[in-house]
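Pilot study result, target chain (231 residues):
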Amino acid sequence: MKKVAILQSNYIPWKGYFDIIGSVDEFVLYDDMQYTKNDWRNRNKIKTQNGLQWLSIPVRQESLHQKINETMITDAKWHVNHWKSIAQSYAKAPYFKVYKEQFEALYAGATQAYISEINRYFIEALCGMLGIQTKIRDSREFVLAEGKSERLLALCQELGATTYLSGPAARDYLDESIFEAAGIGVEWMDYSGYKEYHQLFPPFEHGVSVIDVIFNEGENAKNFLKSSQLH
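Predicted structure:
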């Protein structure tokens, strides 16, 4: 039995993204897809005393057909500003001092040229902090088939998957029948029912970067992911 998930990369994603990673045996970063503006690829939200704040990495989009993994960063100093905002907002979080040096070093080393590289760099580091040991792959390692559902199915077959775990947004287009015909089960990620944790600056907000739960709950952060109950 082998469960696989395939998702486009996000910048410092929310806890639900890490839940999908933690729920499968192998996870594929699907950055051969078209880059979309004003999406999660190059930005995410943190909590501040003035409310939610977007942290966005400036990128260059030269054509509508540009892939995520072809998208370059335009400001080499973006990581300095992001770390400054994070440090100011989370200075009073219970576990900020515990993780400060780790995050400071992480941001200092965030000098990659492409958004896909930056996202993978942070995703792997955050998985480490959350105790997630899932193998992470890049879609560029595979020969990709034509067709939205067919491409996902072919990736699953190449990985030897028996189950494909999909994000709920794919319900609009995923053809489950071709997975069924190939003997691969399809499961849907459920993002409802998350427990609240200690969080600065009420009211509580689930849809922020996973760094929020790490700074507020420390090693206990993983217990606010559903996937931690699977192991």
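One observation from the pilot: The longest strand covers residues 43-48. A full batch analysis is planned for the follow-on phase.
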